[in-house]
């Protein structure tokens, strides 16, 4: 491979990594990760560079004499970690044995290289970590064990010359696609998420602690996910402010977390590589902005792979009231639609399933838990105006929000309003929301009874997207209209 072709392939690899990447790194103001060195180390008799098996160039092995390790070490293997990939992904050595291994992390979040025997070398952003690894005659594969990273492409292998290449897609070490997760009868019962919308915060400056918590959560009866959360719940807390308020989010990532995280408020006007960058466990940051536009907005973690962090629970709703405020109503609710792509029980969701071109979530839910408002209906009065704030957090599936048995007299979706007193007498039956879109709907129930809450994409109603409003005593009186 000549130099220019190698550079072109290097750029492609970087572009792919950047495409999968979102803002990260504490305090760093990069736009794209720097291009790592892909020049081979000096050739040595004991080992040599192999032809590239993938788009990434092959690595070489440095002379053993240059490694500051014992005499049994046959050479030094070097790879670079970027967000999210290894360069190169395939290395070749001449002989089996023990090798020093250097992991250079030019990315913006922590990465590691983990081998099937459990050997792990971890490098923080911008650092190089070293260790040693035994390469057997049949070769060895490796991956980054940070959740989601292997699924995003951080896998590779070391091949011994003359042996069959080792597959880098062995099932060891990393999350395997979960194709048939069985319910666990010992799983804790789901915890109901209060659907009551928050009151608007007093004052015009708000200091809000947003503490990240990695924990387990029962997302449907018998199914537990190792979720990542804002504030310990999925969705995170709903936040409601006036138009023009100053919002000061104190984002905290406890030392007990395993991963870097970040937050991206769609209600803010800030640079992607400014307040949205990631913070490591033990760090905190201030994300300050003025709420200049009214609406129902999404906030979410944007740390790479953002798809995994959102799919694993890191999202919430922020309501910015319009000029003059919304008309006060006694009954206001907040519903966030989202998807669960189950991994193994108790583990983070499957990034492979979430990343499918035609994703098929195991559950599609309102406020984090399948069927929770079917099992515990939301009780409302008859004949009074009800308001629901809606958000489709996705990460992938559209919502067609509908309540069986009523008609929306007001819809405010992404800044466009259907008003109850419109001249034509128009109404609305379903609100279409793509991922990250929000709306407000208002309606009233004409009779006592049960009114199902669904997405009218009905294939999902049986997968958890079903709730109930119970109006009055729940028994229809069939009044004359
Ligand atoms: Cu996160």
Outline the fold blueprint.
Blueprint lengths: L2 H17 L41 E2 L10 E10 L2 E3 L2 E4 L3 E9 L5 E4 L5 E4 L4 E8 L4 E4 L11 E6 L44 E16 L2 E8 L8 E3 L4 E8 L10 E2 L17 E8 L4 E6 L5 H6 L3 E6 L10 E10 L10 H4 L8 E4 L5 H4 L2 E3 L5 E9 L4 E5 L6 E4 L2 E3 L12 E3 L4 E6 L5 E7 L10 E6 L10
Parallel strand pairs: 2-5, 4-10, 11-14, 13-18, 19-22, 21-29
Antiparallel strand pairs: 1-2, 2-3, 5-8, 6-7, 9-10, 11-12, 14-16, 15-17, 17-18, 19-20, 22-27, 23-26, 23-28, 24-25, 24-27, 28-29
The site of copper (II) ion (CU) has 6 residues, from loops.
Keyphrases for this structure?
4 helices; elongated; 6-stranded mixed beta sheet; 481 residues; binds copper (II) ion; Immunoglobulin-like
CATH topology (fold) name of the largest domain: Immunoglobulin-like
Main beta-sheet strand count, sense and barrel state:
6 strands, mixed
Overall strand count: 29
Task: Give the strand content.
Answer: 35-45%
Round the mean pLDDT to the nearest integer and report it: 85
Distance between the termini: 79 Å
Please count the helical segments.
4
Helix % is under 10%
How many discrete domains?
Answer: 2
- CATH homology group of the largest domain: Cupredoxins -  blue copper proteins
| Major sheet strand order | 20-19-22-27-24-25
Net shape: elongated
**Gyration radius, in Å:** 26 Å
CATH class of the largest domain: Mainly Beta
CATH architecture level-2 label of the largest domain: Sandwich
Bound molecules: copper (II) ion
Low-confidence stretches: 1-60, 62-70, 165-179
- SS-based class: mainly beta
Question: What oligomeric state do the depicted chains represent?
Answer: single chain
């Amino acid at each position: 491979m000549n130099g220019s072709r190698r550079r072109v392939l290097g750029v492609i690899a970087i572009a792919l990594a950047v495409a999968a990447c979102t803002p990260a790194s504490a305090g760093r103001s990069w736009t794209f990760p720097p291009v790592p060195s892909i020049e081979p180390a000096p050739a040595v008799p004991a080992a040599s560079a192999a032809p590239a098996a993938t788009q990434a160039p092959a690595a070489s092995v440095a002379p053993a004499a240059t490694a500051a390790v014992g005499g049994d070490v046959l050479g030094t293997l070097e790879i670079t970690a970027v967000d999210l990939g290894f360069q190169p992904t395939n290395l070749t050595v001449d002989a089996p044995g023990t090798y020093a291994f250097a992991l250079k992390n030019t990315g913006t979040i922590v990465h590691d290289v983990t081998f099937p025997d459990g050997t792990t070398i971890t490098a923080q952003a911008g650092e190089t970590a070293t260790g040693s690894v035994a390469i057997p005659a049949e070769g060895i594969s490796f991956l980054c064990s940070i959740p989601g990273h292997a699924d995003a492409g951080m896998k590779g292998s070391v091949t011994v010359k003359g042996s069959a290449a080792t597959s880098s897609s062995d099932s060891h070490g990393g999350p395997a696609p979960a194709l048939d997760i069985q319910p666990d009868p010992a799983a804790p019962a789901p915890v109901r998420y209060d659907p009551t919308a928050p009151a608007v915060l007093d004052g015009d400056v708000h200091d809000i602690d947003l503490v990240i918590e990695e924990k387990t959560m029962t997302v449907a009866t018998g199914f537990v996910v190792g979720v990542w959360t804002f504030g310990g719940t999925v969705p995170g807390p709903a936040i409601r402010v006036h138009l023009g308020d100053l919002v000061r989010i104190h984002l905290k990532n406890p030392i007990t977390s395993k991963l870097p995280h970040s937050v991206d408020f769609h209600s803010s006007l800030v640079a992607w590589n400014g307040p949205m960058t990631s913070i490591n466990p033990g760090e905190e940051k201030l994300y300050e902005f003025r709420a200049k536009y009214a609406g129902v907005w999404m906030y979410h973690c944007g740390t790479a792979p953002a798809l995994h962090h959102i799919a694993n629970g890191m999202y919430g709703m922020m309501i910015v009231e319009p000029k003059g405020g919304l008309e006060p109503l006694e009954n206001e609710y907040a519903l966030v639609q989202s998807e669960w792509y189950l991994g193994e029980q108790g583990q983070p969701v499957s990034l492979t399933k979430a990343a499918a071109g035609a994703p098929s979530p195991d559950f599609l839910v309102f406020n984090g838990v399948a069927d929770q408002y079917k099992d515990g209906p939301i009780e409302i009065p008859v004949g009074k105006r009800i308001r629901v704030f809606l958000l489709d957090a996705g990460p992938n599936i559209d919502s067609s929000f509908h309540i069986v048995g009523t008609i929306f007299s007001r819809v405010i979706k992404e800044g466009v309003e259907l008003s109850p007193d419109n001249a034509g007498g128009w109404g609305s039956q379903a609100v279409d929301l793509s991922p990250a879109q929000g709306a407000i709907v208002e309606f009233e129930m004409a009779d006592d009874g049960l009114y199902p809450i669904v997405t009218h994409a009905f294939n999902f109603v049986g997968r958890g997207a079903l709730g109930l409003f119970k109006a009055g005593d729940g028994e229809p009186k069939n009044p004359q209209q």
